[in-house]
Amino acid sequence: MAYLLMIDDNPQSQRYLERIIRLRSRHELAFAASSQEGIESMVERRPDLIFLDLFIPGMDGFELFRTLREHPATREIPIVIHTPVPFDQVTQLKLRRIQADGVLEFPIEASELLHVIKAALDRRGRDVRRWVPPPA
Description:
Number of strands: 5
Structural class: alpha/beta
Number of helices: 5
Helix content: 40-55%
Strand content: 15-25%
Distance between the termini: 35 Å
Radius of gyration: 14 Å
Largest sheet: 5 strands, parallel
Order of helices and strands: EHEHEHEHEH
């Protein structure tokens, strides 16, 4: 069982992932509605995986991603980017540069979500875990 942290201010996205994770896995899921809440949550308990919405209050998702990758305590935590809206071309280009451990675009099938979680947790701590989105 892993401890997952979802940093997202959208209650619908939270409920969507929560429903799948709670019904189809034994993972524990916590929520943070802003970058600041996410950082505070990580101080209290280090997550095994982070779901990160790019468009959150406070520091934007790209900036938070960069901060987490630069800090020794969080650099090895897998980060899966998610969004309920399609990515524009600029965002897709930025995503290729940061190389997240996964990207989820809603709606997502339960089996796909569970596969992304398993793959990210299995790759945790390895240098080869970088995910590159397909070209736009």
